[in-house]
Amino acid sequence: MIDRRQFGLLLAAFASPPAFATSRPAVTVHRSPTCGCCGAWANHLRRAGFPVTIVNEADMAPVKSRAGVPDALQSCHTAFVEGYVIEGHVTLEAIEKLLAERPQILGLAVPDMPVGSPGMEMPDTKPDPFSVMAFHKDGNPTVFVDYPNGYRRLA
């Protein structure tokens, strides 16, 4: 038999969010209000415990320009986390690597909208190969994470 104090402690333990939910940095996603895949990508991050805020933009071009996203790397949405720019359907694993390593870059990008990337999953469709590109102030991109066989979400 447990007493009232023990019951309260037990209840508090089960009511608390998972530890990673409070340790993940906030992500702000700028997107066109008519784009559904951007919301799916944001949910990919939410499921991993990132608090995500969506900002609907009538015109994304100024957001991308201010963020320094090179034209060749642009995609549908632009996000910001811990001072980095995240352009397009960047994978959770790439974002975690970015935040762990803290390289001297502006951000990461997945140009276009590859099938199978987070937010672009399509049942019974083979995922496209793609690379997550790091981009710098000088605009020169480098491969940050490569998915030559397409992306398969880790459990």
How would you explain this protein's 3D organization?
The protein is α/β, with parallel strands linked by helices. It has one domain: Glutaredoxin (3-Layer(aba) Sandwich). It has a seven-stranded mixed β-sheet, with helices on both faces. Strand 4, helix 5 and strand 5 form a beta-alpha-beta unit. The N and C termini lie far apart (38 Å).
The total strand number stands at: 7
Taking the alpha carbons of the first and last residues, their distance comes to 38 Å
- Arithmetic mean pLDDT: 85
pLDDT < 50 stretches: 3-21
**What's the helical proportion of residues?**
25-40%
CATH class: Alpha Beta
CATH architecture call: 3-Layer(aba) Sandwich
Shape by Cα distribution = globular
User: What Rg is obtained from the alpha carbons, in whole angstroms?
Assistant: 18 Å
Determine the CATH topology.
Glutaredoxin
Spatial order of strands in the largest sheet:
2-1-3-4-5-6-7
